[in-house]
Write a structure and sequence with these properties.
- The complex is a heterodimer.
- Chain A has 2 domains: about 55 residues, no CATH class; about 55 residues.
- Helix content of chain A is about 75%, strand content about 0%.
- Chain A is built from 5 helices and no strands.
- The longest helix of chain A has 23 residues.
- The termini of chain A are far apart.
- Chain B is α+β, with helices and mostly antiparallel strands.
- Chain B is about 45% helix and about 20% strand.
- Chain B contains 36 helices and 41 strands.
- The chains are: A mainly alpha, B alpha+beta.
- At the A-B interface, α3, α4 and α5 of A face α10, α14, α16, α17 and α18 of B.
Chain lengths: ~130, ~1150
């Protein structure tokens, strides 16, 4: 009973947080929805599907999700570290395709890190 | 001060270490040679040969793209001189390039160490010098690659100094143009190497432009743009000596190749193959070198060390340290270092995108650029072209992290930590200390070899001799598939060895330098040696300008994949030839001279050979040696020959094809509209016969769409509409065929029509035979019937031709076209005749020629290797001719019954053999099925294949299901041998019972080629040599012509429109320049042409002009620099 109580409490808390996030950031949610659905639709479109590959779609979704949620620089870095570590394990155990996907995400993360770095550059190299 | 001393000490120590490393890898006596390294064994002559726009090797080649490589070959020559040998692949050359990379990396990193840490140069310069990008390229010492890497590093140094306002635009311009003059991509064929420079300059420019735009600093922005443009102009001016000569060649050929969609599409496969391993995860690990992989993640087991690095757990884990270190740079960045970190990150990201090529997830973008950006197609090997930019960015990030880390630890341990880091890096790249591995490019093949003394002797002797402009034939010939030159002491290259030993002598071998036509000519002369036909050999040698033959007994002559032709026959026959004398022997190499033969590169003739050179050997059997086609026939007009192919034979060779093309978009789709527009465009644009065949093609495709719609239960009305269009198209084809004169004898049109209508007919007939067809609407059924009826009408047009199909076995039909009135002969050559049961050739009994409304029969007359028919005097016109053969034998030889092991069970088989097999013919195999309850299969296998190598089962080349169950009748199969030598045919039952078949027949289906000869009686008496000439250089010949007939001037070098005939320095505009003999240059001289002429190669003129511009520009720059140095303000 006690466990059920704790669980209920946690679920309530989670629901409230999600609700308040939706209320506070409806625009981001809309953008995320719009973009993700477009991106998911792309590989199914005739002709476009000839060159938009599934791996590219997932790649875009991940990058866009990180942008929408405005993940902080340090968390992006940690995520990069995790991806590298997991990638290493996958390659080590011969699951090369999974390692490659993580490598792609790491590349995307580096792009995000790069863009987050730009505003902090001083103007001394004018 | 102490820090400075330490820094310089590190620099000096490293350079010494590189020296010892080079010496260790290439100890005295060992050199890098072969593959496609361009490392000459006579570096001095090779450098000199680079000063000409035409190379004399083979039949001559355009050399105009290679002027830029003078710099690189100068280093080759200089280092070989210093090391006391003539070989470019010496240890000092290796040392030079490695130390240049190190030094430039050091200069670059040292210039920004204030911002990135004082230990940054230590790591950066070491890592840039030793990594897999460099290690992989050591086996052929890719100097152009190194040169661009050095240029990139020095260029960045200048750009960063400009950015920090330590130098101004003028100085930056001066430095950069000088850098780009000294360090270039070698030959202009290496222009894609500038890809990495493009990435670096683009990233830098974007940074600058964005900064100016954000700061609204438009005047500075303008100055920067002008600076970039002036750099481009400066680059062109300072490299004018190499750009100008190549410009005309580029415009005439390479430019169109770059934007040719067909070439782009073909090269896309290469791009995809090289991008297979170009994943980001590989690049983050500083790997992804295409040579390491087989497929996207498989390992190239031929590679000397890829397996270790891709499978060893310790090495895998070690490789993942690099991405952590690179990410570390983003954490450890400081205010003063941020802009560099940002720059390195951007370069890394850009570089990775380009290096990955067509590899996902962004590969489609690269392919888009590759397809649609004009000129981008040069980047078809992305890794090699962009990696050096990526390395600078990525190693910059890694080095910064390590430098920051070292700075944070106590001073006592700094040196130890630095040594541990450098040691670990070297240990990880430990393969660099293993010469056996880094110079190996295939199992048991290395570019590091010891040159045998015989080659040195040959080099010394041959360079001292004058061979004029004659050619030296290399024997035995090169491997037919690889076109390589390989020796049993280790040399393997696509460039023949003698040509890099003596670049000023012209060596001829059937290598990749030759065109298809030239290859035929050269292979012909090899055959004449192999078959011991000395007279034939002499005639050919004369025509090809061969005065000497070099027999190389140390040629790789094993059963290896790249071995040359068997040496034995050549060696024996050459020593038997009376006209050859041994001129000199160099251990395994023997130089023969052809006595009393003085071949001439420039001749006058009256004979224009219009035949394909493939047919020379056939025609030459009917001419005297001095009249051979392709031979010098000064003053003796050759008879006019033409080769005529059998028309009806094509029909016999046809295998029925029922397959429809694949379709992706059906008329039921809304997007089908676009397909229809395209179809209409094609039909409007085409005309004549091609229009009819376009209709036929679209009818075929639309039928395929109909079949797909029938399978997917599309509404009947849509299918009926599509069928209506098919019928309409077929009606157009019917009208077209009906209007062709003598359409019922037009074999080639029938074959094309049949190829398209048969699949339509068979597929629709199958539908009609299906019981579900009755359920379809009447409208649909009517449309199907309409189409089938139109097809029947088309087929009926050809019924006179189709009804006598069996007769074509004995009656071979030709169409002779006589253009000029004269006496004619038809030669029938033995090579294309069938065999009788005793192995003798069967010749035609007579020929029937349709003249003046009736068939005239002519009897054959015997000649050397066949028969001929004397046609007598013929008027111009088109004549149907029929070669009539008597009975043709059944070539089946019964082998009997046997039980063969097949994967499912043991099967009983009856077998037979093809007697007197000829792999240039096809065979019709017939037999009767006498038991219609047996399941039978038909196999053909070459005798040499006994069992499968892997499992021992019965092994076959061809397998066919015999439609025997329920049907007792005839089975017929058209067998076209591909590479078979002694084929056996089998019919096997599904168990070990005896297959019940009988009446075996095997008939040869042959296609004789006939040679029509117009007899000529005219002769011209030549008492004086009409021409004398002198070779001034590989690009200039002076000639003196003292008669006006014959008027065709032949210059026996590879045809190139840039060769020009001049008189008094002016191009002789009235002399038409054309290709003769399928490969050489010729001019039709005007009637008043007499006196002194020159033949010149135009790009050499451009080189002269370019050289002057470069010299003026370079001297000005140096003067300005000196002036600024003396008077700084």
């Amino acid at each position: 009973m006690k466990l059920q109580k704790i669980l209920n409490k946690r679920i309530n808390h989670l629901e409230n947080s999600l609700f308040s996030w939706i209320v506070k950031t409806p625009r981001q949610l809309f953008r995320l929805f719009l973009f993700s659905s477009t991106v998911l639709f792309l590989p199914k479109m005739p002709y476009v599907n000839l060159f938009v590959q599934k791996s590219f779609v997932f790649f875009l979704i991940l990058i866009f999700a990180l942008l929408v949620y405005k993940v902080k620089f340090k968390y992006l870095l940690r995520l990069g570290g995790i991806f590298t570590l997991l990638g290493m394990l996958f390659v080590l155990f011969g699951i090369y395709e999974a390692g490659e996907i993580l490598g792609n995400y790491l590349y995307g993360l580096t792009i995000l890190l790069f863009f987050q770095l730009i505003p902090s550059v001083d103007n001394n190299h004018k | 001060m102490k820090s400075k001393i330490t820094t310089y000490a590190f620099f000096v120590f490293s350079i010494i270490a590189i020296f010892f490393l080079s010496r260790f890898l290439l100890p005295p006596g060992s050199y890098i040679v072969g593959h496609d390294s361009g490392l000459a064994l006579n570096s001095k002559d090779f450098l000199q040969s680079r000063l000409y726009a035409w190379s004399i090797q083979g039949f001559g080649q355009d050399n105009s793209p290679h002027f830029g490589s003078i710099m690189i070959h100068f280093v080759d020559f200089f280092t070989s001189k210093l090391s006391g040998v003539s070989f470019a692949g010496n240890y000092l050359n290796l040392f030079f390039w490695l130390s240049m990379i190190f030094a430039s990396a050091y200069v670059f990193s040292n210039s920004i160490k204030k911002s990135l840490g004082k230990y940054f140069p230590v790591f950066f310069s070491t890592f840039i010098t030793i990594n897999f990008f460099i290690i992989q390229s050591l086996f052929i010492l890719e100097r152009a690659k190194y040169s661009i890497l050095v240029a990139n590093l020095l260029l960045l140094t200048v750009l960063f100094k400009l950015n920090d306002k330590l130098i101004g635009y003028k100085k930056a311009f001066l430095y950069i143009t000088l850098i780009l003059f000294i360090f270039n991509c070698g030959s202009w064929l290496g222009i894609p190497l500038y890809g990495s420079m493009f990435v670096l300059v683009s990233v830098f420019s974007i940074f600058k432009i964005v900064t100016y735009l954000v700061g609204k600093n438009f005047s500075d922005l303008w100055r920067f743009v002008v600076f970039l443009l002036s750099l481009l102009v400066g680059f062109i001016l300072i490299n004018a000596y190499s750009i100008f000569p190549y410009f005309s060649t580029f415009l005439r050929g390479d430019a169109s190749q770059l934007v040719n969609p067909v070439v782009i599409e073909q090269n896309k496969e290469w791009l995809r193959a090289l991008s297979q391993a170009g994943s980001y995860i590989n690049f983050f690990r500083l790997q992804g070198i295409p040579d390491w992989y087989s497929g996207s993640s498989g390992i190239n087991m031929q590679h000397a060390y890829a397996y270790s690095y891709l499978t060893n757990p310790l090495l895998i884990v070690s490789s993942f340290i690099f991405p952590f270190l690179a990410l570390g740079a983003l954490i450890l960045k400081k205010n003063e270092s941020k802009k560099y970190i940002l720059f390195f990150t951007a370069v890394t990201l850009f570089g990775m995108f380009f290096m990955a090529g067509s590899h996902g997830p962004l590969g489609f973008l690269y392919e888009f650029l590759y397809t649609y950006i004009p000129g981008f197609a040069v980047f078809r090997s992305p890794y090699y072209k962009f990696a050096s930019a990526f390395l600078i960015g990525y190693i910059g990030l890694i080095s910064f992290t390590l430098s920051s880390f070292v700075e944070k630890i106590g001073s006592k341990f700094k040196i130890v930590v630095i040594l541990v880091i450098l040691g670990s890096w070297l240990a990880y790249h430990g393969v660099i200390f293993d010469a056996d591995k880094i110079f190996s490019w295939q199992k048991d093949l290395s570019t590091k070899v010891s040159i045998p003394p015989s080659v040195l002797e040959f080099s010394k002797s041959i360079n001292d001799q004058d061979f004029g402009d004659s050619r030296i034939l290399l024997v035995p010939p090169a491997n037919q598939n690889w076109k390589n030159d390989a020796y049993n002491w280790g040399y393997w290259s696509l460039t023949n060895l003698p040509s890099v030993v003596a670049p000023y002598k012209s060596f001829l071998v059937n290598d990749g330098l030759l065109s298809k036509e030239q290859n035929v000519l050269v292979n012909d002369i090899y055959l004449s040696i192999k078959d011991n036909r000395e007279v034939d050999f002499l005639g050919k040698a004369n025509r090809l300008g061969i005065k000497h033959v070099l027999l190389r007994k140390d040629i790789l002559n094993t059963s290896d994949w790249s071995s040359g032709d068997d040496l034995h026959d050549y060696e024996e026959n050459l020593s038997d030839f009376k006209s050859l004398r041994v001129k000199e022997t160099f251990s395994d190499w023997i130089l023969y001279e052809i006595v009393d033969l003085f071949p001439s590169k420039i001749i006058l003739t009256n004979d224009i050979v219009s035949l394909s050179s493939n047919d020379y050997s056939l025609v030459n059997q009917y001419t005297d040696i001095d009249q051979h086609l392709g031979k010098d026939v000064v003053g003796t007009p050759g008879n006019d020959f033409s080769i005529v192919g059998c028309q009806s034979c094509e029909l016999e060779m046809q295998s029925p094809n029922h397959a429809l093309p694949e379709v992706t978009l059906l008329p039921s789709s809304k997007l089908y509209f676009f397909k229809e527009i395209k179809e209409k465009k094609v039909l409007v644009a085409s005309s004549g016969s091609s229009k009819a065949f376009d209709y036929l093609g679209f009818a075929l495709r639309r039928t395929s769409e109909v079949m797909a719609m029938l399978r997917t239960s599309t509404e009947d009305i849509q299918i009926a509409t599509a069928l209506k269009v098919v019928n309409h198209y077929l009606n157009i084809v019917y009208e077209y065929v009906k209007n062709i004169p003598n359409y019922d004898k037009d074999f080639s049109t029938y074959i094309r029509v049949k190829d398209s209508i048969l699949p339509i007919e068979v597929n629709l007939q199958n539908q009609v035979a299906n019981k579900d067809f009755l359920m379809k609407s009447e409208m649909l059924r009517n449309e199907v019937n309409n189409v089938l009826w139109t097809i029947r009408q088309i087929t009926n047009l050809y019924s006179p031709m189709i009804n006598i199909l069996d007769e074509y076995r004995h009656r071979k039909i030709y169409n002779l076209t006589i253009k000029l009135k004269g006496n004619y002969k038809i030669h029938v050559n033995a090579d294309t005749m069938p065999f009788d049961i005793s192995g003798n050739r069967i010749f035609p009994e007579h020929v029937e020629i349709y003249i003046n409304g009736k068939y005239v029969s002519l009897k054959p007359q015997k000649e050397n290797e066949g028969v001929f028919f004397d046609l007598g005097l013929m008027d111009p016109g088109s004549y149907e001719s029929i070669l009539v053969f008597g009975d043709l034998p059944n070539l089946y030889e019964d082998i009997g019954f046997s039980v063969q092991s097949l994967p499912i069970n043991d099967n009983g088989c009856v077998a037979g053999r093809v007697q007197h097999f000829n792999n240039n013919s096809a065979y019709r195999v017939n037999f009767s099925i006498t038991d219609n309850t047996q399941r039978l299969r038909f196999y053909v296998r070459n005798k040499s294949i006994q069992q499968s190598i892997n499992d021992g089962f019965f092994k076959w080349d061809i397998e066919n299901e015999v439609d025997s169950v329920g049907i007792a009748g005839e089975y017929s199969y058209l067998y076209k041998p591909y590479g078979a030598t002694d084929p056996y045919v089998y019919v096997c039952s599904s168990n070990n019972s005896i297959p019940q078949v009988s009446n075996w027949e095997i008939y040869e289906i042959f296609s004789p080629r006939i040679i029509v000869e117009k007899m000529t009686e005219d002769t011209i008496d030549i008492s004086n040599n009409p021409i004398s000439y002198n070779q001034i250089s590989p690009v200039k010949y002076e000639l003196n012509i003292n008669m006006q007939d014959p008027r065709i001037l032949v210059f026996n070098e590879t045809f190139n429109p840039l060769w020009s005939l001049r008189q008094d320095g002016l191009v002789v505009e009235t002399a038409t320049h054309f290709m003769i003999d399928g490969h050489a240059n010729a001019w039709i001289l005007p009637e008043d042409a007499n006196g002194k002429f020159t033949i010149e190669y135009l790009p050499q003129e451009a080189f002269k002009v370019g050289k002057i511009i470069t010299s003026i520009f370079l001297s000005t720059m140096i003067l300005v620099y000196v002036w600024k140095f003396i008077y700084p303000k």
